[in-house]
Design a protein that fits this description.
The radius of gyration is 26 Å and the shape is elongated. α2 (63-74) runs parallel beside α4 (144-157) and α6 packs across α7 (245-252). The chain has a 6-stranded mixed sheet with strand order 17-16-18-21-20-19, with helices on both faces. The chain is of the alpha+beta class. It has 3 domains: 4-54, Molybdopterin biosynthesis moea protein, domain 2, CATH 3.90.105; 60-165, Aldehyde Oxidoreductase, domain 3 (Alpha-Beta Complex), CATH 3.90.1170; 171-317, MoaB/Mog-like domain (Molybdenum Cofactor Biosythetic Enzyme, Chain A), CATH 3.40.980.10. β16 (171-177), α5 (181-197) and β17 form a beta-alpha-beta unit. It has helices at residues 37-45, 63-74, 103-110, 144-157, 181-197, 213-224, 245-252, 294-303, 310-314; strands spanning 4-7, 15-16, 20-21, 27-29, 50-54, 60-62, 75-77, 79-84, 88-93, 97-101, 115-119, 124-126, 131-137, 141-143, 161-165, 171-177, 203-210, 230-235, 256-260, 271-275, 278-282. Helix content is 29%, strand content 30%.
Amino acid sequence: MKAQTVDIKECTGRVLCSTIFRDGGKKLLAKGHVISEDDVHLLETEGMESVWVTELEEGEVGEDAAVMAVSAELGCGCLEIRLAAGGRANLVATEDCCVLVDDDLLKQINCTASVVIATTINFSFARAGQRIATVKSSPFAVPGAQLEAINSILKERGPILQARPIRSPQVGVIYSDPTNGERARQLFENIMRQRLERMGLGASFSLCVVEDEASMARGLQHLLKSKPTVVLVASTTAPAGPDDVVGRAMARIGCHLERFLAPVEPGNLLLLGYKDDIPVISAPGCFRSVKPNVVDLVLPPVLARYRVSGWEVACLGHGGLLA
């Protein structure tokens, strides 16, 4: 691709190499724009006689077409693609969702020379209308062979990104204390409400129990009958592992204990289990403060009904130092 200054009457179909502004600083045409006959008339009325342009060579794909082609293979779920100026396309959430990102595949694509992709963090919560990814090409054009290779990888291994919708979630909360469950509610209910309100939610079901194995098991069974999307255990104690009261109660009702300990601070004493497909999350100390902790990392995906694995919890260590 070769850039050159061309008479305004000869630039139809060519690509602008720099943004053109009106007197006063208002943008007229953006860099990368393919000039039409109407654009020529517009530029003539602005008194321009020549412009700096380039044109595609054989085997090249224009920047806008390239980023739209990659964006079409990049993601799935509740999102839409919006073309932006300068060889850029944005992926925008169309409803509240959790964003899942294949980090290894993202790195592979970003090692190419012609297209790069930026996304929000894996497991992050996104509101409707929020940008969740951007695709940017090299200026003006991308070699067709490189674009074909990128899309071949995405078709075979993709998508890189899922916008998994969070639709009508129901959150069950069990407050527990060794002597008086109501004490746990008084300590944690306000914090719990603020944490859920960040995602536009509230507790659908809640109850208080004395923290012994039998009472905790009955409380969990009672909440699970309502089929919540997730159950959160807000305990005033800090158990040492699955063999303590909460873990024993979860095992007693048939929960599969997926993971104990998370490489996240605050929140390393996370205990994650599943009763059938319903996640049960115990995170000691995480409801004493509204500051970000492990609950904020795992809550979006489970609310989107994504089954978080023990391996994925282990992967939270990179960026897991939250405070």
